[in-house]
Amino acid sequence: MKKIILVVLIALIGASLYLFPKLCKTNLINIDNQDSVINNILQLKGYTSINVVKEKKYKDYYAILYYESNSNLDNSKKNLELAIYKNIDDLKNNYDYYGGASSTKDFDTFNCNDKGQETIIIVYGNNQLTKASSYCIESSQNLYKKNIELDLILDIYIIYDTNNCSSVNRLLDINEELIEMF
Fold first, then answer.
1. Cα–Cα distance measured from residue 171 to residue 61, given in angstroms and rounded to the nearest whole number
2. What is the chain's percent helix, strand, coil content, to nearest 5?
3. Alpha carbon separation from 116 to 47, 83, 85, 180 (Å, rounded)
């Protein structure tokens, strides 16, 4: 009887060691390998190809802006899409998919509270038509203003405000006048 129990336990341990990594599989990528990032996005979104237009790494976060490229529309009429990855291993370059967004607006934000520890605000957009000279984002405790120097915007803010992940966002013209809220 003891031998049967021992064999069953060994079989269960072996099956667990085989199945556990498969059940807990993540989409780990190396952000230094753009093909790895692109293939991960293609798999997640079900696209056949994408056109990467901007990337940004800040602390443990990596964000990438892209358009689906198998459409006949020019980029100004396509939805700008955002994919965000977070480093899950400080000793290695292992990033896991954190979230994403798609927007039909010229400017938008991705706001998320990460397990009550920090708030992540990612500002992204295409300034070709709007021609804003700066933007402001305001959370419950902070105000950030940044001049816009390029057509494509991708900025990552980490705010250590665990109570609120919302923000008020404004686009400003060269005279500091409000163009629009986003």
1. 24
2. 20, 45, 35
3. 33, 21, 18, 30
pTM value is: 0.79
Report how far apart the first and last C-alpha atoms of the chain are (Å, whole number).
70
- Map residue 125 onto helix, strand or coil: strand
In angstroms, the CA 98 to CA 63 distance is 10
Q: How far apart are CA 69 and CA 66, in angstroms?
A: 9
From CA 25, how far away is CA 120, in angstroms rounded? 25
pLDDT of residue 74: 59
Could you tell me if 167 and 137 are in contact, meaning their C-beta atoms sit under 8 angstroms apart? yes
9-41 pLDDT, tens digit per residue, is 565 565 554 444 444 445 688 899 999 999 999
As a three-state string, the secondary structure of 16-75 is: HHHHHHHHCCCCCECCCCHHHHHHHHHHHHCCCCEEEEEEEEECCEEEEEEEECCCCCCH
Residue with tokens 């991960």: 40
User: CB under 8 Å to 14, separation ≥6 — which residues?
Assistant: none
